[in-house]
Amino acid sequence: MRDLKPGPHFITTGRSLASDPHAAVEEACADIDSRTCCFVLAFIPNDLDPVEVSRGLNRKLAGVPVFGCTTAGQITELGYESDTLLLLSFPKSNFRCSSILFEELRPLDSTEIAANAQRQAERFRHTAGWNRLALVFSDGLSKQEDLLVSTLEAVVDGLPIFGGSAGDGLQYEETFVLHSGKAHSNAAVLLLIETNLRFQGIGFDHFLPIGSEIIITDADPEERVVYEINGAPAALEYARLVGCSAEDLSPLVFAENPLLLRQNLNYYVRAIREAMDGHSLSFLAAIDDGLIMTLGRGKEIIETLEAGLDVRDNAGNAPDFILGFDCVLRKLEIEQKQLSKQVSDVLQTRRVVGFNTYGEQQSGLHMNQTFVGVAFFEPEKRELS
């Protein structure tokens, strides 16, 4: 029977608010036992040098693989944070892993990525009775996540893939992923995992479609830039639709008024990154000429968060922990509405740990303004024969 410990039982967490990367590594690693650790996930805040952090982790946790990325915020056992180095240690007793680094994402060679991913998956020996999944961390500024995750989903047969795009605190300058003791830009990491824990995938947002259809009439798909909406300059038409002036467009306006794309009876957010010169709009996910979209309007974000995280196993038990990938634009809206404390309380109660992303990946799709996660439950108890 589980005790009432508020944090996870099956992983160890470490955190540090230190502004010096070496001091942060030392403090965050204090409770991690490298002898029993299978791998570590590291989520790095914007104010720490990822190169120095990765080097420090490689020295401190010699022999333990470290994966992860830079972030636009962290989700720790205290809820939302912004300046915390967060480490998650996964023990050998419950986890096995294999990894592959995809370099030079842009331009993306889908044939080579498919071949390498399939080869790695075939080499990953299956332990009887254990469950398998995959995590992907990608450069959040590569603009390649859509093709990357759809390619991986097609070739890594039978492994559900969950992930998040690396961030840098809404600076949109450079993002990194961690692999083999180094920080890499223009790259992605695929992590194949086996575990004797049971798990469920989670994915939700808090938007409903409103109003009439919106047509993208001129776009550059490769750069994710839209020049015209409904035949008019994109930023001007978008501002008209949401009821503000083009001069007042901001990350908060974009966060509260996303465009939604319908696919397979579901609506997915295509978040706007920024307004650009010439009244064009830059997006954080795939966009193309001729797409028919609709404006989204938010539902009550606390209620949808509580409902989305209220997952149980077949016996009605709550997860031991939830690994969460939560879009930074959700966090921005929450902060602007002064709901950070309430949201952090929910995340803490539900044992969510993870990071704020520039995009989320699930079921072969790259999304925005979504919470994607994996809920891990205690291993199934097997009766002795």
Counted by DSSP, the helix tally is: 9
Radius of gyration using CA atoms only: 20 Å
Count of β-strands: 26
Distance from first to last alpha carbon: 22 Å
What number is the mean pLDDT?
93
User: Outline, from the CA principal axes?
Assistant: globular
Structure description:
There is one protein chain. The chain has 385 residues and is of the alpha+beta class. The protein has 2 domains: 12-204 and 302-377, no CATH class; 207-298, no CATH class. The chain contains 9 helices and 26 strands. It has helices at 21-28, 50-60, 110-123, 145-155, 234-242, 251-256, 301-309, 328-336, 340-349; strands at 12-16, 37-44, 66-70, 74-76, 79-81, 85-91, 95-103, 131-138, 161-165, 177-179, 182-184, 187-195, 198-204, 207-220, 225-229, 232-233, 259-263, 266-270, 272-276, 280-283, 292-298, 321-327, 352-357, 360-362, 365-367, 371-377. The strands form 4 sheets. Strands 14, 15, 16, 17, 18, 19, 20 and 21 form an 8-stranded antiparallel β-sheet that branches. Strand 2, helix 2 and strand 3 (66-70) form a beta-alpha-beta unit. Helix 1 (21-28) packs across helix 2 (50-60), helix 3 (110-123) crosses helix 4 and helix 7 (301-309) runs parallel beside helix 9. It starts with 11 loop residues before the first strand and ends in an 8-residue tail after the last strand. Residues 1-5 have low confidence and may be disordered.
